[in-house]
C-alpha cells in the first residue's frame, strides 16, 4: 500500500448530536490517532482512546471512522490527527525471501513520520529559506532571563531589555461556557486565562448583561461572583456564557487633531443602537436562527431595558427592545415594567414557543405596585411588529399558556396608572389557551392590526375597561369564542373580523357593566351565535352596533342559534346592520333574539336569505323597530314553535297572529290581557272570536296566578311526560274521582306471579307514623299533622337484606334534580326562588298496598292449609 496523500489531520465543529466522525487519511494502527478537544478560548483537552472514543479502519487506504463514546456539547472543535511513533519493529533475517509487504508497510510508516516532522517544522518559528545558513540558536538561559527575545539591526537573534510599554493595549477576551468552564447554579467562581492584576482592568458580562464592579472580586486568575453582602454567590441558573474583557494596561493612540472624518453608520448595527438608544437582543447573545434557544438573551435585553426604565422615570421615555428579523426560539418571556418590545414586522420577526415550555410567549406581570414617576397616566407596555407561534401541540394539554398574557392587576379603577397595554401589528397563532388574555384592571389599552388564529380557547379574553380595538382579526378558535368581554366593558371595536370560531363570534358575558360600541365589524360563519350577550346589569348597559355585518352564523345547523342573541340590557342599538344567509342547510334560528332588553333600536337589511325563519324575535316590548326586508319597513316579525307566524301590530294589550303563508293575511290566534285575566283564543279567518274559541285562560290575584280555565289538559305525546317532577311537586291534588292507571293486558308482558322472595322481603317492611319536615317548619312541631305510611329508604333496606334490589321494582322510586337559580323580574324581585340540587326517594302506594295484599293472601292460604 502507498501513502498518496499529504493529509494527516482534520477538524470538526461539535453540534451536540454527532458521534461519528470520518478520518479521511491512511493510518496503520488505531492507537496512532490522536484527538484534541478545543474550547472557544483555545483551551485544549487531549481525549483518551478507549475512554472518550474508539477508532475503526486502521490499514485502509481511505481512512476510517472515529466514534465518540458520549456526545460532545455544542461549541467545541475536534482536531483529529496522526501521531506515528518513531520506531522500527521489523527484524530482517539473512538469506530469507525479501518481505515486500512488510517492507512496504515500514516505508509507509517512515513516510508518515516524515510528514509528521514536516508539519511540525512548518508550525515552528524559522528563518526564510532565502536566509539558509543563519544561526537560529537561542542565547543561554542566563542571557534570556528577564529579557525579551528580539533581533539586532542585522536581523540576528538577540536579547533585549523589557521596555516600560510592554503590556500596553494587550486586551484579551475570555469566553467561559456553561458545562465546560462552570456549572450554573453550583459554581461561584471561574478561572481566567491569566491574572489581570486588579478588577479595574476587567469588564464582565453574563449572557451579555453587564455586571457591576461590586458583583465580583479578582484573586490572581480566579474571578468570584458576590451577593449583596459581599459573599460568594452561585452563578444564576440559565446563564450560558460569561464574557470577560481585560488587559493589564490600556493604550490608545490619539489621532492628530481634525483628522477624524464622518463615517456612515449601518442601520441596526451595534454602534447605531448605541447612538439611537435602541436595545438590540443580538447585543445580548440572541441568534434568531430558529435553532438556538434565545430565551435568556432576549430576557436579558428586556431586563436591561426595564432597569433603564426605572431610573429614567419614564415620563418622557419608554425603552425600546428590538428583536431583528429572524426566528427566535423561546420558553416564555416576562415584562414587568413598561417597555416597547418590537420586531421588524409581522412577517419578519417570529417568536416560536419551544415544546414543553408550558408558558405564555409574552407575559406582562402586574406592575402597578412598583411604578413611580411624574406622569403615569398613559404609560403602558407596548408589544408590536412580530409573529408569536404558540405551539399548542407541543405543550401540556389543558395548561393556561397564552400568546400575550396581561395578568390581573391590583390597581383599582380611578388610580393614575390604568394598567393597560398596546398591542399592534401582531400575528398570534395556536395558543394552548387564549391568544390574548387581558386581566382585570388592565384598563385603557389599545389593539391595532392584531390577528389571532387557532387558539385552544377564546382568541381574546378581556376583563378590563376602555379598550380600543381596531383593524383586528379573531378567528378559528378551536374550542371557544372569537372575542369575549368577560367583565369590565366600555370597549370600542372598529373594523374587525370575527370568524369561523367553534362557539360564538362575539360573547358579552354577565360581568360586563359598561356599554360597548362595535362599528363596521364582520361576524362570519361562527358555529353558534354571531353575537351573544347575557349581561346582568340591565339598568346600565346599552350596547351599540353600527354598520356591522352578520353572515352565515349558526353553523352547527341545529336551528338553536342566532345571528344575534342578547338579554338583560337596557338598550341595544343596531344601526345600518346587514344580515346574510347563504347556506340553506345551516340557517340561524333568528336574526336577532332579545330577552329582557328594555329597548331595541333596530335598522337593518336582510340580504340573500334562504332561510324559512323570520328575521326578528324579541321577548320584550320594543318601541323603536325599523326592519327593512325587500323595501318593506316597520315590520316586526317573530317565530313561534315550529311554525312561522307574523306579529303585525299591538292593539292595547292584544296581539293578533297571522298566517304568513296566506296572501290575504288570515288570522289564526289572539292573545289578550284584560284586567287580571290572560286569554288565548282561536280566532276565525276574520279575526272574530266565536263561541268556544277560548283555548286557555289564566286568572291572577296580585302577582300570583290563581285560576286556570281550559278544556281537557293533555300531553302532546302519549305516555311521554310526567305531571310535576321530584323537585317540583304538587302540594295537594283535588279530584272528583280516583286516578285511573292503565292496566290493559295488551300493554303488558312477562305477566307472572309475585315471587315469594319479594313477599318475604315485604314482610320485613314496617308501617310508621311521622310528620313532614316542611309542615313542621311552616306550622310548628305541635300543629303539623301526623301521617301514616312507609319510609322509602327502609323499604329499600328491607329488600336489600334479602339480596333484592328494590329499585328494580316499580313500587320504589328515586329521583334527583340539578340546582336552579332564582328567577327575578326587571326590578330584582324573586318570581321563582332558587332550588338547591337534591334527590328524593318515593313509594308508589298502590303497588305497595298490592304487595301487602299479596302477602296477606299468601299467609292466609298457609293458615288455612295448616
UniProtKB/TrEMBL annotation:
Residues 743-866 form the Peptidase S74 domain. InterPro entries: Endosialidase_C_dom_sf, Pectin_lyas_fold, Pectin_lyase_fold/virulence, RHGA/B-epi-like_pectate_lyase, S74_ICA, WH-like_DNA-bd_sf. It comes from the Bacteria. PROSITE patterns: ICA. Pfam families: Pect-lyase_RHGA_epim, Peptidase_S74. This is Peptidase S74 domain-containing protein. The lineage of its organism: Bacteria, Pseudomonadati, Pseudomonadota, Betaproteobacteria, Burkholderiales.
Amino acid at each position: 500500500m502507498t501513502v498518496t496523500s499529504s493529509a494527516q489531520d482534520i477538524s470538526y465543529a461539535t453540534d451536540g448530536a454527532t458521534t461519528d466522525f470520518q478520518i479521511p487519511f491512511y493510518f496503520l494502527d488505531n492507537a496512532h490517532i490522536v484527538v484534541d478537544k478545543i474550547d472557544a478560548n483555545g483551551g485544549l483537552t487531549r481525549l483518551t482512546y478507549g475512554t472518550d472514543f474508539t477508532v475503526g479502519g486502521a490499514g485502509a487506504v481511505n481512512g476510517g471512522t472515529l466514534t465518540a463514546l458520549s456526545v460532545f456539547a455544542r461549541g467545541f472543535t475536534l482536531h483529529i490527527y496522526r501521531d506515528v511513533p518513531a520506531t522500527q519493529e521489523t527484524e530482517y533475517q539473512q538469506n530469507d525471501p525479501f518481505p515486500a509487504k512488510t517492507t512496504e508497510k515500514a516505508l509507509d510508516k517512515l513516510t508518515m513520520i516524515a510528514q509528521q516532522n514536516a508539519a511540525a517544522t512548518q508550525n515552528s518559528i524559522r528563518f526564510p529559506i532565502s536566509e539558509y545558513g543563519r544561526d537560529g540558536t537561542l542565547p543561554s538561559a542566563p542571557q534570556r532571563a528577564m529579557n525579551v527575545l528580539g533581533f539586532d539591526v542585522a536581523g540576528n537573534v538577540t536579547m533585549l531589555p523589557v521596555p516600560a510599554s510592554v503590556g500596553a493595549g494587550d486586551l484579551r477576551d475570555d469566553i467561559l461556557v456553561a458545562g465546560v468552564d462552570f456549572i450554573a447554579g453550583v459554581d461561584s467562581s471561574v478561572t481566567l486565562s491569566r491574572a489581570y492584576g486588579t478588577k479595574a482592568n476587567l469588564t464582565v458580562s453574563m449572557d451579555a448583561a453587564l455586571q457591576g464592579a461590586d458583583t465580583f472580586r479578582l484573586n490572581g486568575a480566579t474571578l468570584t461572583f458576590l451577593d449583596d453582602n459581599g459573599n460568594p454567590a452561585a452563578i444564576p441558573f440559565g446563564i450560558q456564557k460569561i464574557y470577560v474583557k481585560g488587559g493589564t494596561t490600556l493604550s490608545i493612540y490619539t489621532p492628530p487633531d481634525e483628522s477624524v472624518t464622518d463615517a456612515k453608520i449601518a442601520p441596526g448595527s451595534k454602534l447605531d443602537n448605541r447612538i439611537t438608544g435602541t436595545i438590540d437582543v443580538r447585543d445580548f447573545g440572541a441568534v434568531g436562527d430558529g435553532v438556538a434557544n434565545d430565551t435568556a438573551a432576549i430576557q436579558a435585553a428586556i431586563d436591561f431595558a426595564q432597569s433603564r426604565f426605572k431610573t429614567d422615570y419614564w415620563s418622557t421615555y419608554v425603552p425600546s427592545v428590538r428583536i431583528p428579523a429572524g426566528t427566535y426560539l423561546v420558553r416564555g418571556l416576562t415584562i414587568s415594567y413598561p417597555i416597547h418590545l418590537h420586531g421588524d414586522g409581522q412577517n419578519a420577526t417570529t417568536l416560536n414557543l419551544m415544546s414543553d415550555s408550558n408558558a405564555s410567549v409574552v407575559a406582562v406581570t402586574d406592575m402597578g405596585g412598583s411604578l413611580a414617576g411624574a406622569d403615569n397616566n398613559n404609560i403602558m407596555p407596548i408589544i408590536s411588529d412580530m409573529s408569536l407561534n404558540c405551539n399548542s401541540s407541543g405543550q401540556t394539554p389543558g395548561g393556561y399558556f397564552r400568546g400575550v398574557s396581561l395578568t390581573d392587576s391590583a390597581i383599582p379603577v380611578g388610580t393614575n396608572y390604568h394598567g393597560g397595554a398596546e398591542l399592534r401589528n401582531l400575528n398570534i397563532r395556536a395558543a394552548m389557551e387564549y391568544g390574548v388574555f387581558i386581566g382585570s384592571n388592565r384598563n385603557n389599552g389599545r389593539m391595532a392590526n392584531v390577528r389571532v388564529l387557532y387558539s385552544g380557547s377564546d382568541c381574546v379574553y378581556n376583563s378590563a375597561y376602555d379598550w380600543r380595538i381596531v383593524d383586528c382579526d379573531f378567528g378559528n378558535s378551536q374550542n371557544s369564542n372569537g372575542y369575549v368581554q368577560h367583565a369590565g366593558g366600555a370597549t370600542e371595536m372598529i373594523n374587525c373580523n370575527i370568524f369561523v370560531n367553534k362557539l360564538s363570534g362575539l360573547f358579552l358575558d354577565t360581568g360586563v357593566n359598561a356599554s360597548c360600541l362595535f362599528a363596521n365589524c364582520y361576524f362570519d360563519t361562527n358555529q353558534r351565535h354571531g353575537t351573544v350577550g347575557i349581561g346582568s346589569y340591565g339598568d346600565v348597559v346599552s350596547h351599540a352596533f353600527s354598520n356591522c355585518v352578520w353572515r352565515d352564523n349558526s353553523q352547527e345547523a341545529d336551528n338553536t342559534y342566532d345571528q344575534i342573541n342578547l338579554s338583560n340590557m337596557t338598550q341595544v342599538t343596531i344601526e345600518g346592520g346587514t344580515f346574510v344567509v347563504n347556506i340553506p342547510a345551516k340557517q340561524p334560528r333568528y336574526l336577532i333574539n332579545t330577552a329582557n332588553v328594555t329597548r331595541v333600536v333596530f335598522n337593518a337589511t336582510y340580504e340573500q336569505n334562504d332561510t324559512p325563519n323570520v328575521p326578528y324575535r324579541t321577548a320584550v316590548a320594543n318601541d323603536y323597530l325599523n326592519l327593512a326586508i325587500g323595501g318593506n319597513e316597520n315590520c316586526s316579525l317573530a317565530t313561534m314553535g315550529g311554525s312561522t307566524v307574523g306579529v303585525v301590530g299591538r292593539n292595547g294589550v292584544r296581539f293578533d297572529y297571522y298566517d304568513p303563508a296566506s296572501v290575504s293575511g288570515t288570522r289564526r290566534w289572539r292573545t289578550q290581557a284584560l284586567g287580571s285575566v290572560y286569554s288565548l283564543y282561536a280566532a276565525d279567518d276574520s279575526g272574530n272570536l266565536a263561541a268556544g274559541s277560548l283555548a286557555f285562560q289564566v286568572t291572577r290575584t296580585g302577582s300570583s296566578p290563581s285560576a286556570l280555565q281550559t278544556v281537557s289538559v293533555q300531553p302532546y305525546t302519549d305516555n311521554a311526560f310526567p305531571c310535576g317532577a321530584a323537585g317540583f311537586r304538587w302540594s295537594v291534588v283535588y279530584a272528583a274521582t280516583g286516578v285511573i292507571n292503565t292496566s290493559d293486558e295488551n300493554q303488558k308482558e312477562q305477566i307472572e306471579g309475585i315471587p315469594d322472595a319479594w313477599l318475604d322481603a315485604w314482610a320485613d317492611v314496617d308501617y310508621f307514623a311521622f310528620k313532614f319536615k316542611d309542615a313542621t317548619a311552616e306550622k310548628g312541631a305541635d300543629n303539623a299533622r301526623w301521617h301514616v305510611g312507609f319510609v322509602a329508604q327502609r323499604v329499600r333496606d328491607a329488600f336489600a337484606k334479602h339480596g333484592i334490589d328494590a329499585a328494580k321494582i316499580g313500587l320504589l322510586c328515586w329521583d334527583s334534580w340539578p340546582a336552579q337559580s332564582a328567577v327575578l323580574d326587571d326590578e330584582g324581585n324573586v318570581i321563582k326562588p332558587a332550588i338547591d340540587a337534591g334527590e328524593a326517594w318515593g313509594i308508589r302506594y298502590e303497588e305497595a298496598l298490592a304487595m301487602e295484599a299479596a302477602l296477606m293472601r299468601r299467609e292466609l292460604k298457609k293458615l288455612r292449609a295448616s
